[in-house]
Every structure is written in structure tokens, then in C-alpha cells.
User: Which sequence fits this backbone?
């Protein structure tokens, strides 16, 4: 069996004295879409920030494409091939859509032609971004901003794209469009890790799911199995399941 | 003196002020540091130009890039070595640090250069048109100042480093996720601010007498320009520079040169009452 692209073992960490992650185990296989779901405050964003080097883990292992990345600086993690699309898009105000996308390619040194090629690819996936390329990125609609944020992640030419709360605050139609785009990008070889509160959207897209609660992975497995499993319903969809029954 | 002549004098002065202030504005806008050293940077640039002229016969316009490069290096080292250690603290902390550094710089310059004003005198002739007379050195300094300001604008708008500076200014965390090393961008930004001060100072040596005691006066002018124009953007510094230049030129003639600076401060106070974001500043943008 080939080595997974990303392997996280026993990862612990948090903010200063406040420990949020209590031993996370997570595996993302090459070329798949995986997802981490969990309620607000479960530790999802902390997990992503620890993987991308924004927070230092206090214990555990982060192995990516044969390299140990635990405690590496954000630019080193990005250089190794992990791009992190943050929650809330976090586009740069005062800069055009094109400038925002180019900032995604900040650490690349493979030449202007290669960057232009990827820019054309992003415009191809999200044609609206091409149309609005000279507009201030923060004046776009929510869905378009998410496209720009994902495009900015793609511009780093990552092996793994981690997207935090892609669907949060977006109209269902926009989520659908983004989901289709992600599936398309994934078919072209990019591995994706989604982090979502919205289980339905996440399980729809992802093959493997990890449920995180109180800083631990409580259940994991194939999403098709998970969504019908009683343990999952009890642990996470509890209220939904009850209301459906009732 | 005709109104047109005063207007031209004001524009010459204004473009120099813009060039002096644009670096201060950049540092304030991006790092949220009120750099009290900026006046000393200007004076140091002027002395570099003066000594190169006196000891090596280097033409002041050739000294502009030399002074700029020297101040860039100094600014980078200061930021990396000292200011970056407290850059995330409240503005009063960094203000106190740069204030202390400025006292050191001021006294070192007094010690090294003495307080006696010096000046480069080069008679390059004068240009006359429509009854307006402008000495060639002033005209050249004005054009050079505008050129430098335009180059900075182009760098900020169109280059990789310019994009990174704006990104860091707008969202430090997200910039880090782009792989941008924030402390390097801070050092580069501070160095660019010092570079503009050094270049402006090198040109100033050709027009005004210079002395270490003038650093405070230039700092005051730069401060007014930034408040007038709004922080952190080049067009704002340009607008603020021209406004202050024109106000000083007209006030100098009609109210006497001793009142020119007072009018500048008065204007700043009035603007703060009416439009606290400055002429070109956007609320919340900084």
C-alpha cells in the first residue's frame, strides 16, 4: 500500500496554554477528497492552522509527501505543497482579483510563464474571476470571493489544498458551483481536504470523512458508510436524526 | 512677487515634501509605526550628498541613488535589529523606541557634523517663462522628487514586493498563509521609507542649508503632509505635499516666512476637525 500524502498522528496543540487538539489522527490519500467535520469549537480550524505552520504543535507528527512538517514555518509548509484557504476567505482589500491570485504564487520561483499558465487555469475554472480580474477582490459576492480564495490557493501549485469552511455563509447555489469546480480540480490530480460544519456538503464531495469533537477524531471512515451509521447519527447528526424520526 | 511665481515655488516645495513624506506615510500605514527617525534620515541623506560633493566632487544628483541605497541598508538593519522586536506592540511603544533612537541619531550627528548649517552651492542657471523664474537646480530636484515618488507608486502597485507589502498591511495572518515572511516585509517597508527620506534629503542639500538641528522641523512637515493627505498611500502623500508646499509658499509671502510653518499646522488642525481621514485617506482603510 502506498504511503498516504498526508499523515497526522497524535497531534496536540492549541493557543498558548489553551490546549485544543488532544491527539488527532488523520490520513489523506493522494488524489482523494477528504473532509473533517465537526461542530463549532471542535478544533477544526486549529487543526488546519497547526498543519499549515501558523501554530506550533506541542506533540505528534505531521508527515507530508515523505517529509516531516511538524513545527515547520508557514512558508516551508507551503513550499512542501500544502496550501490553506482560510475561513472567511481573507482576501486582501485594496488589491485586484488578479493581484490576490498572484499573491498565492508568492513563494514560487518557477518563472512568470508557469504562473501565467496557472492563472489561465484558474480563470478557466472560474470564468467570472477573469471577467472581474481588475476589480477589488473584496467587492465580489461571497461565492465569487470563495472562488478567488480557492484560486489563490491553487496558484501556489500545491499537492494538497486545505479549505476551511468553504460553504459558510454562501447561498446553496454558490456552494453547488464551488463543489462542482472542486470535483473537477480534484479529477485533474489535486488532493483536497475540506473542513466543514456543513456535513451534507462535505460528505457529498469527500470520500473519507473524519469527525472531530473536543479536539479528538471520534469517528472516521468512508463518507457513504458514515452518513448511514448509527454512531455518526448519535455523535454528530443526533438532533437531525431525532427530528427526522419525530 | 507674482501669484504665478508663488504658485510655482509652492509646487517645487510641494514635490519635495511629497518625496520626504511618502516613506513616512508608508511605514505608518503598513507597520503602524510613527517613525520619529524620519527627520534624521532626511538630514543624513543630505549630509551624504554634501560630503560626497565636498570630498569627492560627486554631483548631488548622482548622490541621490547613493544616499538612497545607504539609507535603505540602514533602515533594513534598524528594523531587523531593533524595531521588529516591538513592532506588534501598541503604537506608543514603537513611538518611544524610534524617539529614543532619534535622540541617539540626533546627538551623533551633532557630534559628527556639528550644528553649523552647510550647503552645496551649484549655480546651474535658471529657467524663465511667463515672468516666472525657477533656478535649474530646484527644477531638477522637483522633477527628480516626482520621478522617485512615481517609481515608488509603480513598485507598490505593480511589483511582487509591492503586492506583498499591501497584503501584509491588510491582513498579516492571511499574508503569512501566502508564504510571505512578515518580518522581512516589515524590514523592507521600513527600508523603503528610509530610502525615500535619504533620496529626498540628498536633493534638499542642494536647495536649503542643512544641519542636524533641522531633523525635527522636517519631521513636523512630514507629519503634516501625512495627516493632510491620509496615510499609507502614495497619492495621499503627493496631495498632502502639494497642499503644504502651496500653503507655505503663499503664507510666506503674504504673512511672512516666520508664519509659514504655523499655517501648515493650523491647516492640519482644521482638517482633523473636518475630515480626520485626510484628503485621500479612506476610513477603516488604514
Assistant:
Amino acid at each position: 500500500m502506498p504511503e498516504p500524502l498526508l499523515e497526522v498522528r497524535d497531534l496536540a496543540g492549541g493557543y498558548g496554554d489553551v490546549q485544543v487538539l488532544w491527539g488527532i489522527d488523520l490520513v489523506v490519500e493522494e488524489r482523494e477528497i477528504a473532509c473533517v467535520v465537526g461542530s463549532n469549537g471542535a478544533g477544526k480550524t486549529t487543526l488546519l492552522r497547526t498543519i499549515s505552520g501558523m501554530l506550533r504543535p506541542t506533540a505528534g507528527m505531521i508527515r507530508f509527501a515523505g517529509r516531516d512538517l511538524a513545527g515547520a514555518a508557514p512558508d516551508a509548509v507551503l513550499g512542501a505543497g500544502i496550501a490553506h484557504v482560510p475561513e472567511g476567505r481573507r482576501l486582501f482589500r485594496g488589491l485586484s482579483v488578479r493581484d490576490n491570485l498572484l499573491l498565492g504564487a508568492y513563494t514560487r520561483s518557477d518563472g512568470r510563464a508557469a504562473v501565467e499558465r496557472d492563472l489561465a487555469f484558474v480563470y478557466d475554472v472560474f470564468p467570472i474571476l477573469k471577467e472581474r480580474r481588475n476589480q477589488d477582490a473584496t467587492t465580489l459576492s461571497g461565492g465569487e470571493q470563495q472562488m478567488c480564495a480557492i484560486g489563490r490557493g491553487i496558484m501556489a501549485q500545491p499537492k494538497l489544498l486545505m479549505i476551511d469552511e468553504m460553504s459558510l455563509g454562501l447561498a446553496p447555489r454558490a456552494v453547488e458551483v464551488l463543489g462542482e469546480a472542486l470535483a473537477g480540480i480534484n479529477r485533474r490530480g489535486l488532493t483536497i481536504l475540506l473542513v466543514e460544519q456543513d456535513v451534507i456538503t462535505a460528505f457529498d464531495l469527500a470520500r473519507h470523512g473524519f469527525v472531530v469533537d473536543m479536539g479528538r477524531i471520534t469517528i472516521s471512515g468512508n463518507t457513504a458508510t458514515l452518513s448511514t451509521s448509527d454512531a455518526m447519527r448519535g455523535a454528530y447528526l443526533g438532533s437531525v436524526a431525532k427530528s427526522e424520526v419525530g | 512677487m507674482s501669484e504665478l511665481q508663488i504658485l510655482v515655488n509652492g509646487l517645487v516645495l510641494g514635490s519635495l515634501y511629497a518625496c520626504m513624506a511618502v516613506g513616512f506615510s508608508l511605514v505608518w500605514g503598513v507597520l503602524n509605526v510613527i517613525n520619529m527617525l524620519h527627520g534624521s534620515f532626511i538630514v543624513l541623506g543630505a549630509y551624504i550628498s554634501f560630503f560626497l560633493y565636498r570630498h569627492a566632487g560627486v554631483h548631488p544628483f548622482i548622490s541621490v541613488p547613493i544616499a538612497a541605497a545607504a539609507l535603505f541598508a540602514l533602515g533594513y538593519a534598524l528594523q531587523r535589529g531593533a524595531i521588529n522586536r516591538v513592532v506588534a506592540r501598541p503604537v506608543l511603544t514603537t513611538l518611544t523606541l524610534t524617539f529614543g533612537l532619534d535622540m541617539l541619531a540626533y546627538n551623533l550627528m551633532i557630534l559628527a557634523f556639528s550644528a553649523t548649517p552647510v550647503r552645496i552651492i551649484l549655480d546651474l542657471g535658471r529657467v524663465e517663462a511667463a515672468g516666472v523664474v525657477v533656478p535649474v537646480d530646484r527644477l531638477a530636484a522637483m522633477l527628480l522628487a516626482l520621478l522617485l515618488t512615481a517609481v515608488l507608486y509603480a513598485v507598490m502597485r505593480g511589483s511582487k514586493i509591492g503586492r506583498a507589502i499591501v497584503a501584509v498591511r491588510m491582513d498579516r495572518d492571511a499574508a503569512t498563509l501566502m508564504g510571505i515572511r512578515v518580518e522581512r516585509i516589515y524590514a523592507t517597508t521600513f527600508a523603503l521609507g528610509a530610502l525615500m527620506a535619504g533620496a529626498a534629503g540628498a536633493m534638499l542639500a542642494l536647495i536649503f542649508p542643512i544641519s542636524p538641528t533641522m531633523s525635527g522641523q522636517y519631521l513636523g512637515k512630514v507629519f503634516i503632509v501625512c495627516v493632510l493627505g491620509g496615510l499609507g498611500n502614495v497619492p495621499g502623500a503627493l496631495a498632502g505635499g502639494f497642499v503644504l508646499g502651496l500653503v507655505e509658499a503663499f503664507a510666506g509671502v503674504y504673512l511672512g516666512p516666520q508664519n509659514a510653518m504655523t499655517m501648515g499646522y493650523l491647516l492640519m488642525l482644521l482638517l482633523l476637525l473636518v475630515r480626520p481621514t485626510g484628503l485621500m485617506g479612506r476610513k477603516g482603510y488604514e
User: Anything to note?
Assistant: DSSP finds eleven helices and ten strands in chain A. The longest helix of chain A spans residues 172-187. Confidence is low (pLDDT under 50) at residues 238-246 of chain A. Residues 6-90+156-245 of chain A form a domain with the Rossmann fold fold (CATH 3.40.50.300).
